[in-house]
Amino acid sequence: MSRRTTRIAAAMIALAVLAACSSIPIGTASKLRGLDYLNDDVASLLLALDLPPSLEPVQGASTIGFDITTPANGERRIKATLVAADADELAGTLPPPAGERNYYLFGFSDPDKQAIRDAQAWARTLPAGAASLSVSLAPRLCRTEPLDPAKTTVSALVALPGASGLAPLLSNQPLSSVLANAPIKDVPPCAGHSG
Question: Domain limits of the chain?
Fold first, then answer.
């Protein structure tokens, strides 16, 4: 697949973002047009969740799905679990969190990185335009205290190591609008919190 075709495909991907227990489609692909999903080292992608103190990610439960499908050549589906990333990997890229917010940084495990790289290598062997890619992000969240979903906002930012700048996948989205499309209508309490 050519770089131009890949960028067109990237502009058309369905990117699903931030929900308490499921993925929610959001039209942010245009913000990621500079990312070449076949040739950039997507396995090195880093994700920063920007959350208020009342929300935390559930450790080991958040995932990103990469699905490469073709009508004639099969498919590759990867569900990569997000693992805590070293803050140094995004040093200098993230502005300080606003107000009393917190960043939670994630990357991929070594086996998931290899699976992503293998899928990219397979996709590069296909005829130009033969494959479509979809990416879905499903962080699982819990709450440390009661919260008002209409006044609680969440953001998700993504970067490749060494890249200048971040692409917002979700920017100050009210939790209520995220939950409106989710199968659940509330965020569960975090373990150890009465919430």
Answer: 3-180
Each of the 195 residues of the chain gets a pLDDT tens digit; together they read 443 333 333 322 323 222 233 333 333 333 444 567 778 888 988 888 889 999 999 888 888 888 888 888 889 999 999 999 877 766 666 777 778 899 899 999 999 999 999 999 998 888 887 888 887 777 788 999 999 888 999 888 887 766 666 777 778 888 887 766 555 567 889 987 655
3-state helix, strand, coil in the chain (%, to 5): 20, 35, 45
Three-class DSSP labels, the chain: CCHHHHHHHHHHCCEEECCCCCCEEECCHHHHCCCCCCCCCHHHCEEEEEECCCEEECCCCCEEEEEEEECCCEEEEEEEEEEECCHHHHCCCCCCCCCCCEEEEEEECHHHHHHHHHHHHHHHCCCCCCCEEEEEEECCEEECCCCCCCCCEEEEEEECCCCCCCEEEEEEEEHHHHHHCCCCCCCCECCCCCC
Burial of 183 (0-12, 13-18, 19+ CB in 10 A): exposed
CA angle 38, 93, 57 (to 5 degrees): 80
